[in-house]
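Final report, closing paragraph on structural work. Over the funding period we assembled a curated collection of sequence-structure pairs, and we close with a single example.
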Amino acid sequence: MSQLNQKNLRKQIIPYEKSNLKASIWQMINTFIPFIVLWILAYKSISTSILLTLLFDLGAALFLIRIFIIFHDCCHQSFFKNKTANKILGTITGIITLFPFSQWKHSHSIHHATSSNLDKRGIGDMWVLTVDEYIAASTWTKFSYRLYRNPLIMFGLGPIYIVLITNRFNTKNAKTKERLNTYITNIAIIGLSALFCWQLGWENFLLVEGPIFFVSAALGIWLFYVQHQFEDTYFEEDENWDYVKAAVEGSSFYKLPKILQWVTGNIGYHHVHHLSPRVPNYHLEDVHNNTLPLQNVPTITLKTSLTSLRFKLWDEENKKFIGFKDLKSFYKVNRESSDTV
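Its predicted structure, as stored:
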């Protein structure tokens, strides 16, 4: 993509970067109210049927993902025009989703600024090793990486580790306002949880909130995973890295069924979001449909996205993800090179 085309592409998106107050308020209404109703129904159904409770939990979990998308937009200052309004709603939705607003806003902005940059990995992204890095790694690092990349660990223990543990602590270099926001979020979570346990009973509270938290967090990790972990994605070293290419070629268009697209707040249009984080989630589809170059991007579906589970390492030479089984050929080449020497 030429420099001129890149500039034109950015210009085409600018009109969509303005939030619409009516659209934002309507999204709050059609998200928070169903979530609250489903939560109450899940609690009321405990005495009738646990299976019914879990069904309502599943519905509430899907709406919690939608609440997280609102939180996500607030972190990008795109849900409202007013920064204070974004911070207030972002903190409230952060308490509901168990994510500290200021901390995640900071790490996520780094993710956007460094996504697909091989020299700037480690903050706000998933652990990715190149083939050469993996081959040269210690036995412990290889074991840790394989464990991290195991779907049962990533989507099973991952939600618990990330949402319940790491989100509760500030980073080493966090500034005062960021630290205070994390403390406020933690205190609010503990206080609300204690209140619900006191009013409803801790068993009932866990039976409702537990599945909602776990399902929404696991699905959230999955969405984040498939947005960048597809076969022909984009990774480059810093000297060759390009922001627009990283957005358009390194972020997927996850083409979901309409109902799932709505529930996930259009986040499947991730290439659009990375190109311009200031576009509110309710404008992402319009940007994609009205910007021709963005319609020719890596597209994955529910079916094809499942193949991404086998992608483990980035092959710098062939510019694609490979699985651990594909490593045999690389080890063979290394042995042959060693024998030649």
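The radius of gyration is 21 Å. Strands lie at 129-130, 253-255, 299-301, 313-315, 320-322. We thank the funder for supporting this effort.
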